[in-house]
Amino acid sequence: MSGNATSGIVMPEPNADVIARRAEIVAAMRAIVPGEGVIDAVNEMRPFETDGLTAYKQLPLAVVLPSTTEQVSRILAYCHRNGIRVVPRGAGTGLSGGALPLADAILLGMGKFNRILDIDFDNRTVTAQPGVTNLGITTAVAHAGFYYAPDPSSQIACTIGGNVAENSGGVHCLKYGLTTNNVMGVELVLITGEVMRIGGKHLDSGGLDLLGILVGSEGLLGVVTEVTVRILKKPETARAVLVGFPSSEAAGECVARIIGAGIIPGGMEMMDRLAIHAAEAFVKVGYPLDVEALLIVELDGPEAEVHHLIERVAQIASELGCITLRASNSEEERAAFWAGRKAAFPAVGRISPDYLCMDGTIPRKALPLVLARMEELARQHGLQCANVFHAGDGNLHPLILYDASKPGELEAAERFGADILLLCVEVGGVLTGEHGVGIEKRDLMPSMFDETDLAHQQRLKCAFDPDSLLNPGKVFPQLHRCAELGRMHVSRGQLPFPNIPRF
Amino acid sequence: MTDRLCPRDEADVVEAVRWAVSESRPLEVAGTGTRRALGRATQEAVTLELAGLSGVTLYEPAELVLSARAGTPLAEIEAMLGEARQMMAFEPMDHGPLLGQKAGQGTLGGLMALNLAGPRRPSAGAARDHALGLRAVSGRGEAFKAGGRVVKNVTGYDLPRGLAGSYGTLVAYTELTIKVLPRPETVETLLIRGLDDPAAARAMSEAVGSYYDVSGAAHVPAEVAARIPALAGLGGPVTALRLEGVRPSIRHRREKLEMMLAGRGALATLEEAGSLAFWTAVRDALPFALEEGARLDAAKALWKVSTAPMHGPVLGAAARGLGASVFYDWAGGLVWIEMPGPDPQAAAIRAALAPGGGHATLLRAGTTTRATVEVFQPLDPVTGQLVRRMKDSFDPGRILNPGRLYAGV
Ligand SMILES: Cc1cc2nc3c(=O)[nH]c(=O)nc-3n(C[C@H](O)[C@H](O)[C@H](O)COP(=O)(O)OP(=O)(O)OC[C@H]3O[C@@H](n4cnc5c(N)ncnc54)[C@H](O)[C@@H]3O)c2cc1C
């Protein structure tokens, strides 16, 4: 891949014929999106050459910034007719390289789709264009006490379209679900340029669940041009408890017992020693520095319930021998408890020139084992790793510290990261909990899925985009031709009569 | 005569589907076959009955996860969850009584293939929202897996969710993994009496849009309320708001709601036992149940309609104009419509639905009707083509439940 000779990830061979037709393609794009909506100057395309996975960079063929569904439809129809690849992009905060451009592809930036179209308090929905930020939705309804529940830490920047593509989560998804549980409808443009609507202000689909397939499809199935989400009333009360433990085992056990007691907190986050120290040094909110693991447990809901449950959580934590136990008594205090956690990534960024943010999920009970094995791996790879962890749902974010200016360290960090993800799979977990496969975890897919599993997923892609023009080279380690995937290997009369009980 | 193939394990399912593909013989995919009357009427000579693939394979209450083979009876799963004070939070409805069958039948595979839900749908989701992983055999006669056993998972397309509700037309499930949740400690229901449908929709909208965690909002007009034993003695229309959780919280929320809704109508409360009975009646649409063994072609046609909650009463009024009985769940977003006779009057129902958007499913009708009237909401041409191509992907030979959802799919 140009721009990063060190990376081991191979992207699809650029189509030289398409690159040769660049001037003609740019002109065609200008005919569809007039004015400044088409960018082809190298220096102006630079801001688009990477996403949140900054180790990888690539300039696109051209950047196109449409502002209407009709333009998107015409762009895609043109690309479809002319065999041109398309990479959709929201805000470019994705951490798995999903919006990484390709040399022979149009980068379709959705930033101009930035309007809220409908706020419906009676039906409790908001309809927004895909370039509206995640926080923008909450802001638009906050005056009436409502909010949009999934809250990725990137929420001030990331777009709802990107959230739909990645099925993003946040600290509150333990109780309120991921993007997929909160999206009710979309308008989608297929690669053919055909526009379709899925869902709306009603629940379920009464037929195939196309919405379920689309959410989390990483821009491979269509371009989302409108999103309808459900909004919720902001909880009457929220209180958090800060609990420090002398060992991560005890913290893990505390999480298990809280859930075992039938309590589903609004959020339940864990940090390890390195992360606690980095966060405290950065935001100075009074995190205890003598603990191995810190839990933030937030209870939200009706006042009486929160006060009742906070007592129960405190009791469970005490029984397990916690060293620190503080319950928030004001909004300021609660915000302070969270400040360190929310700033954990930049905090780690201060103690290390570069870091890689991993995103595996494990069954919660495997936490002590995984933490111990990660320490071993850190020694093996000669790198440090700080851990922040959506403890309630087993989603790990190990932050691998490295220095890209030291030869070989990026590669070592990537190998360390891959080993962590393989460990997650080994203990019954998965490669990615919320950041997506993109290019980052693409080549690890075979550790979770065999060829038949992957073929069943890729045939779904064939139903939407048989020429594989949308975001190719992402998610799947190998591009297969749909004709080849579609072939049936069973032929008439060749199989014996089934040898199974019949009546 | 119908032939029944009864596989014992996944390898048998693969063999059966491969045989069917090689012989171009469509298969009716069934658990125990109790929900045969749902969906478009089809007639396959061979039934693939998955009830033999039975048994819970993993249950870890502290991890909130359960896996079971597709043919495992729901009753078995529910009993197991009950012992650990857990539940399937999506409250899967039981179609049995509506179809003139016993309650308490059905399998896990059927639950997912029909994407079942209940009154908690708006807050807790449907089966799709709790689907974590699957093993299945596609119409290509190949076994595959998707998803995993953890809640946070975006590794690859979300097939466990995407295949929910596919009525066995894309794959035959062999094993499923679902998320389970703690059962609420107790439940109470606040009742508002005497509201007409639009006033009820407004009250429900305010209640579910309040701080007070209402986990069920249903409205039953007078003639339907009279058929619900838990409401005996109340008379008139009843609007019900369910409160679940720990006692101090329920008391606090009930008092707040009572203040919020004061003046709307006379208030009453159902305690735990009454609440459980009432919400089961709502979940399973028991006011419209048939006697066991009743013939469907003589029964009153029944629609299940999902729409924007505030459109519920508009649709309800139109349906009542046609002589139907209705009641509402999901704060008005789910409308149960029992027609005055076996004629579903599909055109009129769908026309009344259109302005609010949504989908109307003909849940109960005779075989002839279900062969001629579109049972599911008709698809626009673009979606229709896409759905056909999805069928091509999973089942190019049209072997699995062909035509059960849409003609040619
Ligand atoms: C500091 C930081 C913290 C983060 N914290 C979290 C977190 O807590 N939880 C979490 O889940 N994620 C988190 N992320 C990751 C990231 O913010 C999310 O994945 C987010 O959803 C990406 O949105 P975006 O608009 O930036 O999308 P982009 O990065 O631009 O694109 C992401 C993918 O979506 C596709 N796409 C974008 N728009 C569309 C569209 N309209 N139609 C079709 N496809 C489209 C792209 O092709 C790409 O594959 C974090 C990232 C950063 C940098």
Automatic annotation (TrEMBL), chain A:
Q: Which positions make up the signal peptide?
A: none
Q: Which Gene3D superfamilies match?
A: 3.30.465.10, 3.30.70.2740, Vanillyl-alcohol Oxidase, Chain A, domain 4
Q: Which cofactor does it need?
A: FAD
* InterPro entries in alphabetical order: FAD-bd_oxidored_4_C, FAD-bd_PCMH, FAD-bd_PCMH-like_sf, FAD-bd_PCMH_sub2, FAD-linked_Oxase-like_C, FAD-linked_OxidoTrans_Type4, Oxid_FAD_bind_N, Vanillyl_alc_oxidase_C-sub2
Which segments constitute the FAD-binding PCMH-type domain?
A: 56-234
> Which SUPFAM superfamilies does this chain map to?
FAD-binding/transporter-associated domain-like (SSF56176), FAD-linked oxidases, C-terminal domain (SSF55103)
Keywords for this protein: FAD, Flavoprotein, Oxidoreductase
Record PROSITE patterns: FAD_PCMH
Would you tell me the protein name for this molecule? FAD-binding protein
UniProtKB/TrEMBL annotation, chain B:
Keywords recorded for this protein, A-Z: FAD, Flavoprotein, Oxidoreductase
What InterPro entries would the database entry show?
A: FAD-bd_oxidored_4_C, FAD-bd_PCMH, FAD-bd_PCMH-like_sf, FAD-bd_PCMH_sub2, FAD-linked_Oxase-like_C, Oxid_FAD_bind_N
Q: Where is the FAD-binding PCMH-type domain?
A: 1-183
UniProt xrefs under SUPFAM superfamilies: FAD-binding/transporter-associated domain-like, FAD-linked oxidases, C-terminal domain
Keyword Flavoprotein recorded: yes
Its cofactor is: FAD
* Short name of one Pfam family: FAD_binding_4
Q: Which Gene3D superfamilies match?
A: 3.30.465.10
Instruction: From the Swiss-Prot or TrEMBL record, give the protein name.
Output: FAD-binding protein
Species of origin reads Ancylobacter crimeensis
Task: Name the lineage.
Answer: Bacteria, Pseudomonadati, Pseudomonadota, Alphaproteobacteria, Hyphomicrobiales
